[in-house]
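Recall that a protein's primary structure is simply its ordered list of amino acids. Everything else, from secondary elements to tertiary packing, is in principle encoded there. The following example makes that idea concrete.
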Amino acid sequence: MSAPDPNWFYSALAQSAAAIVGLIGAFVTSRVMMMASERSRIEKRINEIDAEIKELERQNAPLLEYIAEIDRKDEEEDRKKDEESVNSFLRAKKPELDLEDLPATDEMLKELLEGNRIRIPDEKFISMFKEEYKVLIDGMRVEKEEEVRLNPSLGSIGELVAQAARLRNSYAVQPNLPFLLANPHKYDRYNRYQEITRKNDTEISYKNAKIQELQHQVSQIILPEHFKRLIFSLIYFTIVGVILPLWLLPVTSEQHLVWKDIVLVLFITGLCAVFLYIFIEIKHITKKTKQCSDGRLKLLVRRLTGWFTTKVKEMGGRLKDKVRRLTGWFMTHITRQKIKQRR
């Protein structure tokens, strides 16, 4: 009876190893292609959202320019009114001032600010007030020197007459500037533009958050952490499970006795290396899924917080507009009452 042919053993090992390598290789290839497709889809969506943000910013640009221009004009008007208030205050205080005992600038400024007549009490206003106060004092000194020079013989009587003249001039009716009645529709366009820009800013904030989320997703689309180990395991398994058995063919019975155990051990080590990687990858994916769930919960909380903050800002803006309208109506009412009193 002839000995069994040993070549079937090596042929079966090579075919089994080739099938396993082909199956795992196909899975890895399909996964890499799927990751590339997903990355491409997300990057395309990011570009679309970025284009939408640029369009919203383009729409906001002329509206913001108009709002800035209105704010600039309002600031100019407020500063003019503040300057008029300073001049009126200094004219009223002029008869009370004594060149021998002048109050400090800070005291005068404090008294002015306590009257609640100043709209923009910033550094620029303080500098303007100090300059006007200095001009007033210099003018009073010049007037006194002129009076002394023109009336040296009047003595105390001349001084009393001069003071009476100053009182008469200080309380003389000043030419009134034309009162500008507040237009109730002045800020309609301004408020409408502000509402539009707020909505666009809210939309831009949401889209930026969406882009950050998509970028985070892109950063998560990476090859497995131990992908190189898989490649090395497949290469090793291909060498010991496919190439080595095929290289030994045809084999004699004597050679079979030598190589049988060696080839079988190498085949088993290559198979264990591949399945060990698969086990580690499954464990890693399970842990990553749990972390992803926690991350989605944190993202949901962050979105809700952002939405609540946006709504609070919108309500604050609407309240500010209402206060501004009410202030305009109140100023109009006061102006009309003053005009009626003069008539």
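Residues 153-158, 167-182 have pLDDT under 50 and may be disordered. The first helix runs from residue 7 to 93.
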